[in-house]
Write a structure and sequence with these properties.
Oligomer: single chain
Radius of gyration: 26 Å
Distance between the termini: 41 Å
Shape: globular
Largest sheet: 11 strands, antiparallel
Helix content: 25-40%
Length: about 625
């Protein structure tokens, strides 16, 4: 059996400054709260309660319109397929994140491409031809609904400036009216919930390989399926209908004041070591994708396993905000049939950004599943005043990469060079291809690369990687569109800042044998990871049954810089649990809200929330009340 991490000494790590201010995090928190308020208002303008599901395409269209969207039939069909029977409030929030409303400038720009002479008008015949044959094609009735409006049509022409003004004004008025109705009816504020469940299980299914391209990724039509703890629920303001409850209070010291027994890898210099890099990538819907690893241990040995954010080379003055992202590894063992995984332990010891585990592992095959709570790796709205230039033409008129883009490519190379040997083998390059295009490069295509780009020992060099991206720019005659697709897929914004990814490095130390680690998949947080998180909290955490409801138990586990709570429902019926963090201080929840509710299926367990300090340099107080709604 592996020894308890409390019995071991500690992880070393360098001190890292975190440029992200608590004020910026509070602003982001406020934006998320405003988004969910708008979601609530739109939902409850059509349905009596957010506990009620959307039951038809027409209801889906109505709630989207109340949220200021103007969905075409194709958009509605994308989310309501032949397999769809209902969509809940969480599904609706996910759809709104995907279907962002067009701004007035975007609309004018689109119309301007049709109006070549810049007259401000478009003939109805031309408008009909374009809208019914290009892009997301509209129906004849949908186009007629536009051209028949007297406010912006005259003499067979559309005044698209007036149309854009009315479109934006109507959308804003729709949202405003829905919010006003919500504010006037305080009863509605009490009827909010989100749901996510994880079935109780002693064993965990082995991962199945599946690509996770962000560009070609399509929205999951089966939105009602549970997705572990990646979904963000809605927010109720109170729980007056609650019957049973428990309260948990934990006071946490500032990071600089924490005392912990930590592992010190420096004392293991004579041990065998293996290393692999990887990365967390944030998807459009908030899901987090990461590499998954297979670890081979040839004989029983004392092991030390660590993970921490990777401090890749950056230009001076550019912040590395991802260094504040929390990371952990869950260690699972394959059984004899190689069909299931069993939780061994996880890296619960922490010093600064490094987390680690030390114990004994028997010979065999293990899986290492990286994990981050999502408290700090989440969507952030940043004001970008100017889009970065990626390519330019030199004095001879030849295309070249800008210094800023070259620096970003070097950082990308450092991240995807998983074994750190300064070269990209085919397997490493294919993780890059799967992420950015959804396709793999086969041996034949790799041979073509070898003929055209600098390689060493059949592996792509940094210069070869640069030249490959330059070739892509030349293929498009300097149009950077495809290059931006790649950058956005890898977590960069239009200012060439990596804001939606967190590179990390995994180190394996073994006293008596040479361990081998290999990245196997790049995928979103799977059911086996969610179950491992739940089981680790159940094993280690403090258990409290709800007063008057012994079948519903809340487990709370605190480790260094984070607190996780898990709800277990042992009853035969589903339960709805109201969660209130309003008395907490200096806390940041992965839910993005202080008050919410969740639905727990019968005989199952689920993560209620992960909580971290908003400002690590200050003390923080976790005060959470879980109450039974029904």
């Amino acid at each position: 059996m592996a020894s308890s991490p409390e019995d071991n000494a500690s992880l070393s790590s360098e001190k890292v400054m975190h440029p992200e201010s608590s004020q910026a995090r509070k602003s982001q928190h406020a934006e998320e709260a405003a988004f969910y308020m708008n979601c609530r208002a739109a939902y409850l303008a059509v349905l009596k309660s957010s506990l009620e599901n959307i039951k038809s395409k027409e209801q889906l269209r109505l709630v989207l319109q109340q949220a200021g969207r103007n969905p075409s039939q194709k958009t509605v069909n994308k989310y309501w397929t032949s397999q769809t029977t209902t969509l809940n409030f969480d599904d609706f929030c996910t759809i709104l994140k995907e279907e962002k409303p067009a701004t007035k400038n975007e609309l004018l720009e689109a119309f301007g491409k049709i109006d070549k002479d810049k007259t401000g008008y478009i003939l109805h015949d031309e408008l009909y031809r374009i809208l019914t044959t290009r892009g997301e094609k509209m129906t004849e009735d949908e186009v007629n609904a536009i051209t028949e409006q007297a406010d912006f049509n005259c003499g067979g022409k559309l005044d698209y400036n007036k149309f854009c003004d009315l479109y934006v004004t109507t959308r804003e008025q729709c949202c405003k009216s829905a919010r006003e109705r919500l504010e006037l009816d305080s009863r509605l504020k009490q009827l909010q919930f989100g749901n996510q469940t994880e079935p109780s299980s002693e064993e965990i299914t082995l991962p199945v390989s599946k690509p996770s391209p962000r560009v070609s990724r399509k929205t999951d039509h089966k939105l009602a399926a549970t997705k572990g703890d990646s979904r963000t629920p809605s927010r109720p303001s109170s729980a007056q209908s609650c019957k049973a409850s428990i309260s948990t209070t934990i006071s946490m010291a500032a990071r600089s004041n924490r005392n912990a027994k930590l592992i010190e890898p420096d004392t293991m210099k004579e041990w065998h070591c293996a290393q692999s890099k990887g990365c967390f990538y944030l998807e459009e819907d908030g899901e987090i994708v990461s590499h998954k690893y297979r670890l081979h241990v040839p004989q029983r040995s004392t092991m030390c396993i660590t993970i921490k954010p990777l401090n890749i080379h950056q230009e001076e003055g550019i912040s590395c905000h991802w260094l504040s992202v929390d990371t952990a590894l869950y260690i699972l063992k394959e059984n004899e049939t190689q069909e299931n995984l069993q939780l061994v332990s996880f890296t619960e010891q922490q010093n600064q950004e490094m987390s680690g585990w030390k114990g004994e592992l028997g010979s065999g095959v293990y899986w290492l599943l990286p994990f981050t709570t999502g408290c700090r790796l989440k969507k952030v709205k940043t004001q970008i005043t100017e889009e970065a230039e990626l390519v330019y033409r030199d004095e001879d008129g030849e295309l070249a990469l800008t210094p800023e883009f070259r620096a970003a490519l070097l950082d990308i190379f450092e991240t995807i060079d998983l074994d750190g040997n300064g070269l990209l083998c085919l397997e490493e390059y294919n993780f890059f291809e799967l992420r950015t295009s959804g396709e793999k490069c086969d041996e034949e295509a790799w041979a073509v690369c070898k003929e055209n780009f600098d390689m060493r020992r059949n592996e792509l060099t940094r210069q070869g990687f640069m030249d490959l991206n330059l070739m892509e720019a030349n293929d498009r005659e300097g149009d950077p569109s495809d290059l931006w697709v790649t950058l956005l897929s890898l977590g960069y914004n239009k200012a060439l800042e990596m804001t939606e990814a967190c590179p990390f490095v995994v180190d394996i130390y073994a006293e008596k044998c040479k361990p081998r680690i290999k990245a196997m998949y790049l995928e979103a947080g799977s059911s086996q990871l969610n179950r491992a998180v739940c089981k680790s909290v159940v094993r280690k955490g403090e258990a409290k049954a709800l007063d008057g409801c012994e079948n519903v138990i809340v487990y709370t586990y605190s480790t260094g810089g984070r607190i996780t709570s898990v709800i277990e429902n042992k009853s035969e019926n589903k339960v709805i649990i109201h969660v209130n963090n309003e008395q907490s201080k200096n806390c940041l929840s992965n839910r993005g809200l202080t008050v919410f509710a969740v639905e727990v299926a019968p005989k199952s367990m689920m993560v209620s929330q992960h909580v971290m300090p908003l400002n690590e340099q200050e003390e923080w107080l976790y005060n959470c009340v879980h109450s039974l709604v029904r």
